[in-house]
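User: Predict the structure for this protein chain, please.
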Amino acid sequence: MISGKEEWRNFLISVLVVATAFTVQNINPGFFVLCFIIVFLSFFAHEVAHEKLSDLEGIESKSQLSSIGIVLTLATGILSQGLAVLAIPLLTKMRATETGRWLRKTEGINDVELGLVSTSGPIVNLIIGTVFIALYYFLGIWTFWLVSLINFWIGLSNLIPVHPFDGGNTVLWGGWLWFTSTLLGIIGIIGAFII
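Assistant: Here is the predicted structure, written as structure tokens:
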């Protein structure tokens, strides 16, 4: 899990930034609170996925704020009126620990381990987005659409195929996985706007 005051501070600032960027589509306190809750839970699920696989693979990760990422997040929110937000205010640095999977000694991080850990967060967001767009389709509850939209954008933003984004590590491990994940995210966003 997210540990330490600095990581929690960075996490909450990133949630605040992304929620603010999505709130541009409907500026009022109630909508901001709704966006904040959705982004908080979505980022938390994303980070838990990273953390669980990091522990399994023997990788230590630390999240830090990116000033360029914060500016890009807010700029895309403003330019798209909160409908297409690059949610990238937080970057994760990884390094090998002394022991990895099955408590074996590690020499460093290989592309497979890095790819697994990096891909886990965006995949979780894409799954959540898919589940909630289906719920919206069948139940017509607008909040489900918003949950879907936010999760698709968080997942896709993290799949940008350059370092230091998760997508940069995913491409190193398997271009097929990056392509498939990105394609599913794009289809999900298009579906959200068509439905």
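The CA atoms of residues 146 and 195 lie 12 Å apart.
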